[in-house]
Automatic annotation (TrEMBL):
Lineage, uppermost ranks: Bacteria, Pseudomonadati, Pseudomonadota, Gammaproteobacteria, Moraxellales
Keywords per UniProt: Carboxypeptidase, Hydrolase, Protease
GO molecular function: carboxypeptidase activity
InterPro entries assigned to the protein according to its UniProt record, in alphabetical order: Peptidase_M15A_C (IPR013230), Zn_M74/Hedgehog-like (IPR009045)
Full protein name: D-Ala-D-Ala carboxypeptidase family metallohydrolase
Native source species: Acinetobacter nematophilus
Matching Pfam families: Peptidase_M15_3
Residue ranges constituting the Peptidase M15A C-terminal domain according to the UniProt record: 105-161
The UniProt record lists the keyword Hydrolase: yes
Highest taxon of source: Bacteria
Amino acid sequence: MKNSKFIFIMGCISFTALNGCTPSEKNAEHSSSSKKASEQQIEQQFKLWKAQQDPRLLADYYQFMSQYLKHPPSLMELTTTRNYMPEHCYSKRFAIPPKAYWKNVVSSLQLVEKLNRNGYFKTYTISAIYRAPELNHCVGGAGKSKHLNNYAVDFHILSPKETIEIDREMLVKKMCLFWKVEGKNYKMGLGVYGNNRYHIDTQGYRTWGKDHKSKSSPCLKSE
């Protein structure tokens, strides 16, 4: 019996040694690889879309946004919705908002910059700003979504790492504290979606969670 147990243990060790990582590590590696492939696919789609647009309009939009921000997002971040969506909606994920909407998102982007500058998070990437009506319909978005008028910013905080739950929880507490203390002054809408994903707009003091309802927001839960 002891010999069998020893053989079993050694077999497990050999399996791990030969494969270089545990099953859980393999899953994490696969997830990271899939995410990278998805990002590369979106980048390629963006390049194809960009090549079909008026270069002067693209330049004007980027220059307009840049004058209000110390660290303006890339043109891809400004024009691309990278949130999850069905595959048949992919072609609708790129859009330049109407000129009348350009300035709408400035205060929201400035607020994200302020949080970054004040150390709430070090690095982030924007996953959605303007959402064209065609895309909103395709993904079943809310009819009064702030993204439709270019008021909102969805972003993904890249640190702390998503795998460290205690760091994620600490970040949520910091974001909620800012919303409670300063949110009214900014008319700040804060969506907390989990996994370091957030929504910010400046169209009314409110908060919500994963199901887009206020009751699910961690900011409203009693300490």
